[in-house]
Structures are given as structure tokens and as C-alpha cells.
Specification:
Number of domains: 3
Radius of gyration: 23 Å
Mean pLDDT: 84
Number of strands: 31
Low-confidence stretches: 1-26
Largest sheet: 5 strands, antiparallel
Strand order of the largest sheet: 2-6-3-4-5
Strand content: 35-45%
Shape: globular
Distance between the termini: 35 Å
């Protein structure tokens, strides 16, 4: 029976995705037309078949068609991406590609058809989860669900714990979606098809598809929530002597990035999709994904960077440098501080300002996402204190029971980090809370054995 089911799916894939001259082992292919569009040029593309393209840099090795590919992490609710630097001739921050997932191509250089082909395999089940953010999970309409033709009343009802289903319209460059109302049903429902990338806004966690049918949980969520649009930004960094940092020295560096007027939203090197990278042999750079800011960025916004070199921290002094970048209304990767290669990119961030440790004051009291996450069994939790205050940092299980008290007492203002060892805990979802400076902040982390 299983053999005949696979044959039916294969024939259906041919009928759905069309026919081309394909390798003999291929059973089907999908096509997404990617065009250059004024302003934002984002294109969601699915990887429907298992193929040899197992790295983001394999889709377009020389960056002739597009310059950025981005992925979504439902655990952190953040974007990360790989970008092609035509001057260095390399892809920065490449990552693995998995079938059954969707990715975003942007910075389209010329109209082209993104084609994936190969053998049909049953998609791995999606671990659809709720988070403290927007609860968004990016999936691809599975070939096994060929009988579900509607996004809300089809996919949404089949998932069971879904508050809204959203798609990206490549032509209008905008999100469109349907949301569930417990009294009126699915509002603005739209057709769905095999291979269509979809964002599911979850009201509870569930593994889907699964053998067990899940009943719908009533929800009053009638707004369609969508994540911010991604955009990668790289900024080169040099020492006060104008020497580059080697990649193994980046452990001495920290940075903070924020948009002017939104100083309460800060990205650091610990955020998913952010960090430091050695670009070729001549450039050390920091990179962020603007889609990870809580509020959507807009054209004309000014992104600020403050980088700290802790290599002489034992003397009580650190070196700092600052930079900024004015955003344009495109999703093309921005390279800043590459003036010798990219004219108009300006000067790099120069770490030449001596600063006492006690002079580095956070803009807010905040609790950051632990890293790594998921983890096994050790992870680092960072937080910042705007003022001297009493602090409690605790870990809870899903039942609300306290499993670990990590910090309890008065702490000075500044940035702090605590290493958490979960060696005595079992796999699962845990929460950690920070009570400080009149705030109570909470985040979720996942322990995987």
C-alpha cells in the first residue's frame, strides 16, 4: 500500500509542478519566478524535494541571480541570512538547507526561475511551537496534504492549534492572511497548494503532520501577525592601529545595535542571526539581520552600532568604536565600511576610544535570549541593568515550578551573564525570568538531550 501511495504522490507532483527535461532519478520539480521589484524584492521559495543542494551557497554559487538568502528560526523568532559579497567573491555566513523548508531570496540581480527538483520524500514533521514573540512557524504545504486546498479551513483546521495562516505575495511584496474567529470561522481564507510557503501563528505547540488528530482550541486571536522583513547588514571593524581582527579574536568583541528613537530595542552578538564574521583575509565584520528588531524598520531609519573590545579588560579599560547606517527601502544586503572595495561604503568602525568599564551603561534593563538555544546541557543567559538594583534570575519548568535560582541579590548596573548548567534536568521547554528594576521579564529556552 505504501508503494502505491508514493507512486500517487509522484504522479501528482508531476501534474502540479509541470514537466521539464529532468534527471532520470527526479520525480518532480517546483518553480518560483523571482523578479526585480522596485523597493523590497523578497521572494519566498520552497525546497520541496530532496536534492544535492545542501548548503545555501549552492543555489547560486557566484551570486549572479540573488545576493541574500534568509531563513527563519521559530524557537528564537528571529531571522538569519547568508549574503554574497561580489567584491570578495564569497558567500558570508552560509548555512545548511533542508527539504520541507522555505527560504527568502532577496537582492534579485535579474529575473530568473528558482527551480528545485529531485526525489519525493515525506517531509519531516514540523515541530510547531508557541513562543514569547509572534508564535510564527514557517512551513511548506506538504505533498502528503494534497487534499487540503484552503489555508485556514484546510491547513489551519488540520493543524488544530493555529490562530492565523499567512502567505507572502511575491508580486505585491506584501503579506496576506486568514485568521480564525471562534464565532465566524476563518476570515479572509485563501487557497493553498502543495509547495506553498506559509506562516502558521500557533496558539499551542503541536507536531504536525501526525497520526493523532488534534482538536481546535478556541482563540479570540483575530489579528494576522507577521514577522518583520529581514535585511542583512555588515559593518567592517578595525583596531586603533587600522589592523584587522583575526576570527579567533572576536571572542573579545561585543556589540550593540539599535535604531535611533527605539533605544529600548537592542540587538547584540548573542541574538540569532547576529555576530562576527571573518570576510576573506582582509576584513573582520559584524553582521545583524534587521528583521530581528521588534518593530519593523523603515526607509530613512538610522541604525547605530557600538562595538567594544575587551582584550585589555584586565586593566579596567576597554576600547570602543561607533558607526551608523541610514537604511534604504530595499532588502539588498548593506555593506558598510568596505571603502577600499566598495566605493561609498564609508569608513569602518575604529576601536580607538578608551573607556572605563563602569562607563558602559545599558540603555535598558533587559533579558536576552539564551545562547545556544536549544542547548545541551550548558547555555549562557545575559541580561542588562540600567540601574543598581535587587535581582532575581530563576528557571521554571512548564508546570511553573522553580527548578533553579541562578541569581538573588543586589547587582550593579551594566551587562551581566550567567552560565546555566541543566545537567540534572530532563529534555523539554523551560522558562527563565528576570525580576529587576521594577520589571519582570521572561523568555523560553529548549533543553535537548
Amino acid at each position: 500500500m505504501k508503494k502505491y501511495t508514493v507512486i500517487i504522490f509522484a504522479l501528482f507532483a508531476f501534474a502540479l509542478f509541470g514537466y521539464r527535461s529532468l534527471p532520470s532519478e527526479a520525480v518532480g520539480f517546483s518553480i518560483t519566478h523571482c523578479d526585480t521589484i522596485s523597493g523590497l524584492d523578497q521572494h519566498y521559495v520552497p525546497v520541496v524535494f530532496s536534492s544535492e543542494n545542501d548548503s545555501s551557497c549552492h543555489f547560486d554559487p557566484d551570486g549572479s541571480n540573488f545576493c541574500t538568502i534568509t531563513k527563519w528560526n521559530p524557537v528564537t523568532q528571529m531571522w538569519s541570512g547568508s549574503s554574497y559579497n561580489s567584491f570578495l567573491g564569497i558567500w558570508l555566513c552560509p548555512f545548511p538547507i533542508y527539504y520541507g523548508q522555505a527560504y527568502i531570496l532577496s537582492g534579485i540581480n535579474q529575473p530568473f526561475d528558482f527551480i528545485t527538483c529531485g526525489e519525493y520524500e515525506v517531509f519531516p514533521s514540523y515541530n510547531l511551537i508557541t513562543t514569547d514573540g509572534t508564535d510564527q512557524n514557517l512551513i511548506v504545504h506538504p505533498p502528503s496534504k494534497y487534499n487540503l486546498t484552503m489555508a485556514g479551513s484546510g491547513i489551519g483546521n488540520d493543524v488544530g492549534y493555529c490562530g492565523s495562516v499567512t502567505k507572502w505575495n511575491n508580486e505585491t511584496q506584501s503579506y496576506e492572511g486568514t485568521s480564525y474567529n471562534p464565532y465566524l470561522g476563518w476570515l479572509g481564507d485563501f487557497e493553498s497548494y502543495i509547495g506553498q510557503p506559509l506562516f502558521l501563528n500557533m496558539t499551542d505547540s503541536v507536531i504536525w503532520p501526525s497520526d493523532e488528530a488534534k482538536s481546535r482550541k478556541d482563540t479570540d486571536k483575530d489579528d494576522i501577525e507577521v514577522p518583520n522583513l529581514p535585511k542583512s547588514l555588515y559593518y567592517s571593524i578595525v583596531k586603533s592601529t587600522n589592523e584587522k581582527f583575526d576570527s579567533d579574536e572576536t571572542g573579545n568583541l561585543d556589540f550593540a545595535a539599535w535604531i535611533t528613537g527605539r533605544e529600548e530595542e537592542i540587538l547584540t552578538e548573542e541574538n540569532y542571526g547576529c555576530g562576527f564574521e571573518q570576510a576573506g583575509t582582509d576584513y573582520s565584520v559584524l553582521y545583524i539581520n534587521l528583521g530581528n528588531f521588534k518593530t519593523q524598520w523603515e526607509e530613512g531609519d538610522v541604525v547605530n552600532f557600538e562595538v567594544t573590545d575587551n582584550s585589555i579588560k584586565d586593566t579596567g579599560t576597554v576600547l570602543t568604536g561607533k558607526g551608523e547606517y541610514v537604511l534604504d527601502n530595499t532588502c539588498r544586503t548593506a555593506f558598510r565600511g568596505f571603502e577600499p572595495l566598495i566605493k561609498g561604503s564609508g569608513d569602518p568602525i575604529i576601536l580607538n576610544t578608551p573607556t572605563g568599564e563602569d562607563e558602559i551603561i545599558p540603555y535598558e534593563t533587559a533579558l536576552y535570549q539564551n545562547y545556544p538555544n536549544p542547548f545541551n546541557p550548558v547555555t549562557t543567559i545575559k541580561f542588562s541593568l540600567k540601574n543598581d538594583c535587587d535581582v532575581k534570575l530563576r528557571v521554571f519548568n512548564y508546570k511553573g515550578q522553580v527548578t533553579n535560582l541562578l541569581v538573588s541579590g543586589k547587582m550593579d548596573r551594566g551587562f551581566h551573564s550567567v552560565q546555566f548548567n541543566a545537567d540534572m534536568l530532563s529534555s523539554g521547554v523551560y522558562f527563565y525570568t528576570l525580576e529587576a528594576d521594577g520589571k519582570k521579564l521572561i523568555r523560553k529556552m529548549v533543553l535537548v538531550r
